[in-house]
Predict the 3D structure of the following.
Amino acid sequence: MAKSVLSFINRFNVPPNSASEELILKFSLILLVLDGSTGWGLDVFMRIICVLMLAFNKFISNKLLWLLIAFLMVFFNSLQFYNIDNHKILFMYWVILLTFYLWNNKNIDYLRSNAKLMVGLVMLFAVFQKIINEFAIPGFLHGRFLFDGRFMLITHFIIDTPYEELVNNRNSTAILNLLPINNSWVSLSSSAYMGKILYAFQIFGLFFEGLVAFLFLFTKRKSIIKDIALIIFCIGTYFIFPVIGFSSILLIMGIAQSKIQFRKYYVITFILLQFIVVPWQELIFYFKNAL
């Protein structure tokens, strides 16, 4: 039985057309293992399939296995479409594109052009979503930086607020969420110039995101200006807002559409951004207090 199944799967093995295609497929499989699932129902099957594909090179571009991955992602993600993270939906679209590319024996330029278009559209829609959600209004980030644990270290350096006060801010707002009471409020430690700094950051971030969208939608594929802009955006944004899934899929699509000579910078950035999961602020304060 096992031999029959393996023989059937082997029928769909196709060697990668180029080293570029193999690199793109491998990075996509790595991200599927690390952050491709939306729950244990998908997680178990996804990791087994992707690890086996990475372990045995002949399965890297197996059309049947990629079709199975795409089907599993569409099925499980559709069950919780309105609750899952945006980057998981984007990743699902990317896997569907890879599957379509393999089954239709398209040229690598097809994948590069569509990867470039996807990055541009994602950035454009992100700008549009932020505008309609009043991201350009002062104060959007201000409160978040005062009580969100991910930004406490930055806030501490900007306004020199003791870390203990920021922890109290976080605990106070957490209590409000757990025990909502009408007309209840808490005081958060801040400063006027912190609000101005964060508002400037909001506007600059929105502008730069729009610039990346414009470059990917309207410049030539071989232009490296768009690649430089995307790498700067990923490093500047995701080391502050640690969303490793979104940054990783953006970089994989960046690898797919970039020139071979520039690809190494995307790979280096991909590796660097894996360190955003390290609890830097806890480590810094631990060593600071230990000395």
Observations:
- The two ends are 63 Å apart (CA to CA).
- The longest helix spans residues 192-218.
- The chain has two domains: 17-106, 108-291.
- The chain has a mean pLDDT of 83.
